[in-house]
Amino acid sequence: MKAESIVFALAGMCFGVILGWVLGTGQAGRPVPAAPAAPPQAAGTTQQPPLDEGRVQALTTILDSDPKNAGAALQLANTYFDGARYTDAITWYEKALALDPKNVDASTDLGVSYYYTNQADRALTQFDYSLGLDARHTKTLLNQGIVLAFGKENLEGAAASWRRVVEIAPDSAEGQAAQRALEGVAAAHKNGTPQGS
Hints:
Layout: H1 3-28, H2 53-65, H3 70-82, H4 86-99, H5 104-116, H6 120-133, H7 138-152, H8 155-168, H9 173-188
């Protein structure tokens, strides 16, 4: 089986699981970094979520009067992310991190935004930075595995990241998503490479 076939098979099996995880954790509150399932579709093939213009305006007003407000910069980045405006989200995640360089969630969301703008290498570099802040940050590890699998076609590296998530937090939403992704890798690649935990 060619590497592309394995990735597409994995993508098909994992997409619904990971999308469900993203939607489920997104409902609980915004500080949870989103897990990328695959790069966004070409323009016009899917409907973009609406941007909360009122929130953008309110946060911009706060930042105009207090440009060092890391919390407001992060909220603005999250608002742009939620509206699928990833280039704008990157700008504000970078500003938020310049003000609060130890915010692992902002760093991970920045990495996801890089991935969504077809910058898999920058995403992985950002995840390395996040893991330097917290080596056990399961959302970063889950996202790292997804970018390795879908962005770099590195299923062995992806499986290693996902195994680490399962090892750290097997009963968490991230641990369960990682376990299902590992099962998808195992089913898609039965000839002995990446296996589950």
